[in-house]
Write a structure and sequence with these properties.
Order of helices and strands: HHHHHHHHHHHHHH
Distance between the termini: 64 Å
Largest sheet: none
Radius of gyration: 31 Å
Shape: elongated
Helix content: 55-70%
Number of helices: 14
Length: 280
């Protein structure tokens, strides 16, 4: 595969301009075209100006021709860089650089639109965040990553959402199959409960469901999910008794949640269902 085909960039769709610009500058650097973004266009002095500056007549023509050649090379590099920038944009974002005559001007025009906070961009990001939904079958980790990216873009645009608001929006983005877990979180959530705590509960629940498989009925799985969610939220909120000297044996047992049946008070190894099956 040739070097021309090794570098591929996603088209800029209006989100996270800072990251896209960083990638584009790296791309242009790899193509030896980034100098046009920082250097000014070479100035070609006239022969008369060279003579007036004290240059010898026999050297003025050669120096003038060299300057003209350097200008042509610079313009070629600049137009090639501008072409790459244009190819890295969608139809919507590319419309902002229709009249740009140089690569530097194109990036400046894009920065004026997407880098500076604007009500339109903030509204777009807020709508995107509020409309995010975890589809059935989609990994929670991917959803968490998209959620974090959008809240990060909102923060860079000048909007910092309250932690509790972020938790509520995230919980609202979950599908109906997680309703029992959301109920468990809502019932035991304290004021210091963070977005990371909520995401940890949901990711643990996803792992529990994968481990449990399809052996239990739907009602049993929902019941187990509620028990696990309540125990997890209580632990994160500091409500579950620790294993210190002051704790009784019964309180320690209550901390355990069986991953087989979802009931509290015993582990999977001591699950009545497992013990009965082994006895038979």
């Amino acid at each position: 595969m040739s070097g021309e085909n090794r570098f591929q960039l996603d088209k800029f769709d209006g989100l996270d301009f800072s990251w896209w610009r960083k990638q584009m500058v790296a791309f242009l650097t790899a193509k030896d075209l980034a100098d046009t973004l920082v250097d000014d266009e070479p100035v070609v002095p006239t022969v008369a100006a060279l003579v007036a500056a004290g240059k010898e007549a026999k050297h003025t023509e050669v120096e003038h021709e060299a300057a003209v050649k350097a200008l042509k090379e610079w313009n070629w590099m600049d137009q090639k860089a501008l072409a790459f920038i244009s190819l890295g944009l969608t139809k919507k974002t590319g419309s902002h650089i229709d009249k740009a005559k140089s690569a530097r001007e194109a990036l400046e025009k894009l920065a004026n639109v997407y880098e500076k906070p604007s009500a339109g961009n903030q509204m777009f990001l807020l709508r995107k965040l509020m409309g995010m939904k975890l589809s059935e079958g989609t990994q929670v980790a991917d959803h968490v990553s998209s959620f974090a990216q959008t809240t990060g873009l909102l923060l860079s645009s000048g909007i910092k959402l309250d932690e509790r608001v972020q938790v509520l929006i995230f919980l609202n983005s979950l599908p109906e199959s997680y309703s029992s877990v959301v109920q468990g979180i809502s019932a035991t959530m304290r004021d210091d409960f963070t977005l990371r705590d909520a995401q940890s509960v949901i990711m643990d629940e996803e792992m529990r469901r994968r481990a449990a498989g399809q052996g239990a009925s739907e009602s049993d799985r929902l019941k187990a999910a509620l028990v696990v969610a309540n125990a997890k939220v209580a632990q994160l909120s500091g409500k579950v008794s620790g294993g210190g000297n002051g704790g009784s044996g019964s309180s320690k047992k209550a901390d355990f949640v069986c991953w087989k049946c979802g009931e509290a008070g015993h582990t999977k190894r001591r699950c009545p269902g497992v013990v009965e099956k082994a006895a038979t």
